[in-house]
Structures are given as structure tokens and as C-alpha cells.
Amino acid sequence: MTLAKTVADWRHVFKLDPQKQLTDSDLERICHSGTDALIVGGTDGVTFDNSVDLLARIRRYELPCVQEVSSRDAVVPGFDGYFIPMILNTTDVHWLVGIQQQAVKQFGSMIPWTDVLAEGYVVLNGESKVARMTGSRTDLRAEDVTAYAELAEHLLRLPLFYLEYSGVYGDPEVVRAATRGLSDTQLIYGGGIRTVAEAREMAAIADTIVVGNGLYDNLNEALRTVAAVKK
Prior knowledge:
By secondary structure, the protein is of the alpha/beta class. The protein has helices at 3-8, 24-31, 48-58, 98-107, 129-134, 142-155, 172-179, 196-203, 213-217, 219-230; strands at residues 12-16, 37-40, 65-68, 81-87, 116-123, 160-164, 186-190, 208-211. Helices cover 38% and strands 18% of the residues. The protein has an 8-stranded parallel beta barrel, surrounded by 5 helices. The longest helix is centred in the middle third of the chain and has 14 residues, at 142-155.
């Protein structure tokens, strides 16, 4: 099965930040929670060493795990796949195709292209690190998000469209606006999901939800989001 077909079945994913601490017992609970997969990645502080250490701990469990690549120096062989963000609403082309071109130039002959998926990213929390770092224009209306979704699917032919609220809970109406621009591209929502109710609300709109910071704020509640979505 191709990576795209595998990812298409994911409804709930936990995102682990390599620079944040998880005990072995907490990681075991996460991996046995019933979530569909793990994404390993973060905005800053992600290195080869902390990524490979986390992957080694995850590999004790039979759970799909992909790396979301934020730095070419942090890429670790051995993940089940690799997500490559392309920031669609950036004001700096470097974050759309620049760093990606540099990575292909450096590692092109070694890239397992069948295990790589591009994500059309739209960053919507203007106060977040990722928005400031990438110069993302976050003052978007619903119709802007619909247009970005259509651009991702019909012009760029991207398999994944990721709405990133990065630490804050987003506007369900904006997420619905994204669905109006998509028919085949998979809609992923990430940002601020910390409760069962929030997980249910966003899972009713998006194809896949990502729970990240909630794991580090309240692990028990974050684990309950799995059953809330998958039931």
C-alpha cells in the first residue's frame, strides 16, 4: 500500500515534539491508545539527535510513524514516511519551495520518493512561532482559505492540505471553508485540541485531526480524544 493510501485512512494522529520530554510510561500509553499514527516534528529545536532518539523509543511499538520535516539537518532515515510542509500563505518564497529545493539538491539521490508526501500548509495563528518564522499572512477570511484549498488540490495537486492553528483552537467555520475547496485532497486539522469535545467537533469537519500540545498539557484528556474520534 502506498503512503498516500495509508495516510488516507488516518482519522486521529498524535504529534510528538522531539525537544519535549515524555516518560517511557507516557509514551507507552500514547502508542497503545488506539491512535492511527504518530507524527514526529516541531517548529524549532528539532535536531537529528533528538529525532533519532524519539524514533528509537517509538519503534518498540507497532504504530505507523512519519517525520514532518522542518529542517533538512534533522531528517532521520527509518521513518515510515516523510511529510514535507509547503507554506502556502507565506510572504517568503523560501518557505514555499526554497528550503525544499535546497534539500532536494543536497539529498536528491537518497530521497525515497514513494515515502514522501507534500503538505499544503496554511498557518492561521499569527502569534505562533511558525507564523512569525515563515512570515505567514494569517489575517485570512473563510473565502481565502477555500481558495488556498482549491489551489492546493487543483493547481498544485497536493495530497494533503493542513490547517495549522499551532497551539490555539481554531474556527470551525474556517475549517468548513477549506472543505468547500477540496474533493480528493485530504484535509488535516491541527491546533489547540485539548478536550474530547474539541476533538469531536473538528473530526466532524476534517478528514484527520492532529493532537499535539494537549499531550504535554493533560495526557489523560488527550488520550481520551482517540475514542471520541474513532467511535
